[in-house]
């Protein structure tokens, strides 16, 4: 495994102080496993007003936050059509995965369908 791809569920778990998720992410980093997400996922979870999401801000310093540009948007739209799905954010998360990666999500069914439709050999894990 080269990276853990983080969907909103992983960030929400950290924001809520979920010790199991925090431990999972620390172990991954200790083993040289990258953390990856995208800017749209950050928009889903970021509600900070004056330092209220310190744990989330700390996690974001360790995450490669990829941009979502027009090309990614088009690829996500094609993937949604192929998978028969409608959640654009989930499609952008699926497209972040590379062979051997693991995707942490609270929506494993939809993400797994998208990963399969994209023919990406990644593992989807419920967080």
Automatic annotation (TrEMBL):
InterPro entries, per the entry: PIN-like_dom_sf
Name of this protein: Twitching motility protein PilT
Record organism: Protofrankia coriariae
């Amino acid at each position: 495994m080269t990276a853990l791809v983080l969907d909103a569920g992983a960030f929400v778990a950290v924001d809520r102080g979920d010790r199991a998720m925090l431990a999972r992410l620390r172990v991954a980093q200790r083993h040289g496993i990258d953390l990856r997400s995208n800017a749209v996922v950050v928009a889903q979870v970021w509600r900070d007003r004056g330092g209220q999401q310190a744990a989330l801000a700390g996690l974001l310093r360790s995450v490669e936050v990829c941009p979502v540009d027009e090309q990614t948007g088009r690829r996500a739209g094609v993937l949604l059509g192929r998978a028969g799905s409608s959640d654009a954010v989930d499609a952008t998360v699926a497209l972040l995965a590379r062979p051997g990666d693991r995707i942490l999500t609270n929506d494993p069914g939809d993400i797994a369908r998208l990963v399969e439709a994209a023919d990406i050999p990644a593992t989807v894990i419920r967080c």
